[in-house]
Design goal:
Elements lengths: L19 H39 L6 H6 L8 H7 L2 H32 L6 H8 L1 H4 L2 H11 L6 H8 L14 H26 L3 H9 L5 H11 L1 H16 L3 H6 L11 H10 L4 H31 L1
Length: 316
């Protein structure tokens, strides 16, 4: 007995060709998307891409004020970077940058988180006080540095006059090598607290109140509630705040120049101010470009960390 197999004919789906009207609509949609993308891409290339590329090229040249007249910038290879790394000012700048960044970030975050937790409790004038807290963030940095320079002046500063009332001798906040960096960190903390408070307060608003109510039934209140509910809920926000704060603090130059100019005795000299001094004080643009490229690399690393944290937060 033989079994006969029957093969069924293959059924082919009809090819649907888009109508002319649909093709025109897709074409217009594609053109519209490019019209929105191209201007932004051109802007980024012209105002961000070109300066970065020019800065990289300049760091390998002996680029001085004479270059603007002669048009000649001899190629020195890694000579500028070698000179930068062998400079004692560069070592001081790296140490000061690390201290300035760490001190600013830690104090800004701790005070900002404390204020965010404080404002989470609704009370009269809480909205007004939160708005008032944003004022330091809205003021121009050079204006803030001018005000703080007057407040911290050793002879006629308001802070030393207040200390004199209680019998404390005038403190050389901005002219002492051992105190100048602390004073600059304090001013930068004052400027960064509004940002930290605003972002952390927004993160706290996303924590469901039901979690606290359920935890209170189990006796988890106060510090226990913060550690087991609040902190895990805002961990991604905390990571973003810290990374953004580091990237911003690394490139701070206005406040330091306005308060101390990098002195006294380079005690407040950072990578950002060092690049400024090399380029616009010493007019060694090649060396200044080399220092700024080092700062760009450090900032790029933290920017990549920020993107990774943001992507992880979105996936969660």
């Amino acid at each position: 007995m033989s079994a006969s197999t029957q093969t069924r004919p293959r059924t082919t789906l009809p090819v649907v060709t888009p109508r002319p009207g649909q093709q025109r609509a897709r074409f217009r949609s594609g053109v519209t998307r490019w019209l929105f993308v191209v201007p932004a891409a051109i802007f980024v290339l012209v105002f961000f891409g070109y300066p970065v590329v020019k800065n990289i090229i300049m760091s390998f040249q002996d680029y001085t004020t004479a270059t603007f007249f002669t048009g000649e910038a001899p190629w020195v290879g890694l000579g500028n970077y070698i000179q930068v790394f062998q400079s004692a000012v560069f070592t001081t700048s790296v140490v000061n940058t690390a201290l300035f960044t760490a001190g600013s970030i830690i104090l800004q975050f701790v005070i900002g988180l404390a204020l965010a937790l404080f404002f989470r409790r609704h009370f009269p004038l809480s909205g007004f006080l939160r708005g008032l807290l944003l004022l330091p963030w809205l003021l121009p940095l050079i204006a803030s540095s001018a005000v703080w320079k007057w407040l911290l002046d050793q002879d006629s500063g308001a802070l030393n006059q207040l200390l004199g009332v209680v019998g404390i001798a005038p403190v050389p906040w901005l002219v002492s090598p051992s105190l100048a960096l602390i004073a600059v960190i304090g001013v930068n903390v004052w400027l960064g607290i509004p940002f930290n408070t605003t972002i952390l307060y927004s993160g706290l608003q996303s924590v469901p109140p039901e979690l606290y109510e359920a935890a209170s039934l189990d006796g988890a209140t106060g510090w226990k509630a913060f550690w087991h509910i609040t902190w895990p809920s805002i961990r991604s926000v905390v990571s973003v705040v810290i990374v953004l704060g580091v990237v911003y603090t690394l490139k701070v130059v206005d406040i330091i120049l306005g308060l101390t100019g990098g002195g006294p005795a380079n005690s407040t000299q950072t990578l950002a101010t060092n690049a400024y001094h090399q380029s616009f004080i010493n007019f060694q643009f090649g060396i200044g470009a080399a220092v700024s490229n080092v700062l760009i690399v450090v900032s790029f690393v933290f920017a990549m960390i920020y993107l990774a944290i943001s992507r992880k937060a979105v996936d969660e």
